[in-house]
């Protein structure tokens, strides 16, 4: 079986009726480059919501000052900042973004258990058989 395509590390902003906006990570960080492709470097989506405009960056994108500025220029109230850690340095970064962007920051630390995956998922060990 051959599968062609690109995977993207992605923020998706939903509304009750479906998808509002999609942001693909600009540049995968470190070993992520083995899995994910580059996003659209000129695209910083902001979605309207009942609580105000929502935008955000993914993980280490939040450390890129000009990416934050590009997003700030679009104006938003809520900033999404999903990341894979919750260390004290990251918490300081989230606080900095809230102050710098004059916004609320939603910091989501992603977590999955083995039981969250489908039972019929093909794994590396299955391929060795």
From TrEMBL:
Pfam families: CN_hydrolase. It comes from the Bacteria. Coiled coil: none annotated. Residues 1-129 form the CN hydrolase domain. Belongs to the carbon-nitrogen hydrolase superfamily. Nitrilase family. This is CN hydrolase domain-containing protein. It comes from Periweissella beninensis.
């Amino acid at each position: 079986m051959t599968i062609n395509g690109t995977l993207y590390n992605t923020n998706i902003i939903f509304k009750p009726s479906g998808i509002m906006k999609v942001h693909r990570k600009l540049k995968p960080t470190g070993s992520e480059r083995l899995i994910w492709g580059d996003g659209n470097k000129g695209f910083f989506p902001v979605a309207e919501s009942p609580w105000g405009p929502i935008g955000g960056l993914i993980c280490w994108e939040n450390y890129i000052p000009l990416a934050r500025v590009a997003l700030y220029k679009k104006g938003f109230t809520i900033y999404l900042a999903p990341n894979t850690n919750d260390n004290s340095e990251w918490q300081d970064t989230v606080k900095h973004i809230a102050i710098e962007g004059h916004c609320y920051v939603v910091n989501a630390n992603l977590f999955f258990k083995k039981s969250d995956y489908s039972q019929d998922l093909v794994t590396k060990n299955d391929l060795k058989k």
